[in-house]
Amino acid sequence: MKSLDQLRETMRRDRVFDFVAKGEYPLSAFRHTVTPGEIDVSHGTILYVENVTVSFDGFKALNDLSLYIQDGELRCIIGPNGAGKTTMMDVITGKTRPDAGRVHLGQSIDLTRMNETEVAEAGVGRKFQKPTVFPEHSVFQNLELAMKMKKNVWTSLFANLTGEQCDSINQTMELIGLKEQSAMQAKLLSHGQKQWLEIGMLLMHDPRVLLVDEPVAGMTHQEMDRTAELLTQLAGKHSVVVVEHDMDFVRSIARTVTVLHEGSVLAEGTMDKVQDDDRVREVYLGS
Ligand code: ADP
Ligand code: MG
Question: Across residues 167-182, what is the average pLDDT?
């Protein structure tokens, strides 16, 4: 294991852990305000985005956007460039404050009052497009670090793993299909494998909602199939929201597809239904 300084240096390169590398936060800052079990999904809906508007210099990137994610569902969000997909994720994760509207996790948790760290700790994980794994560390160590970043177990970074923690890492490696690569340095993984590893790192925090931005960009067909399988497996236990451009991929995993256009929902339904929608054809799917 590396020295603490070396480890911090590694982490500094990774924005996911920026807040830890700064070292200026009291440990209480990591103490989460809400535990995942406290999310009230008694109405079946885990994520409420209601009448949300975000303006940049008067331009409405989101325009009275409303959408609802059911607990455990797998939702695909599609839409042309500039439709507002990334802005929507930014609002959900506390990166961007909406000018109007409400964003709730379950019945009672108002995400617009939280910063990014708090939203993550409330149970919303976000997978950015670019994988942000620790390149010099093994698959196992990446998952171990992710686990120890959770809540305030940062203090026990150099403590030995308990049997239970080891099991949890092994289960995750199995799920993401990297059991055989356990001891391999992350930088030696294929692009697809890195993406799975990062999903695995998010899973170590057991998020209730997982937001995934363009997971299959740059993947081989085989990797895409495996990713479809993985995301499908995750749904149920987690609610998975996937923003994706690749239509074949969306078709292969989607139950419900939401089409965004100019900051609002243009259409929603099965892939067949939205593909048959004249307005959708016009703005997005072309021909
Ligand atoms: P998508 O992810 O669907 O391609 P975005 O959410 O990135 O769309 O962007 C929606 C619109 O908002 C685009 O027209 C984009 O140029 C604009 N936009 C996004 N972020 C900013 C920003 N920080 N400042 C100004 N305009 C922005
Ligand atoms: Mg985008």
Answer: 97
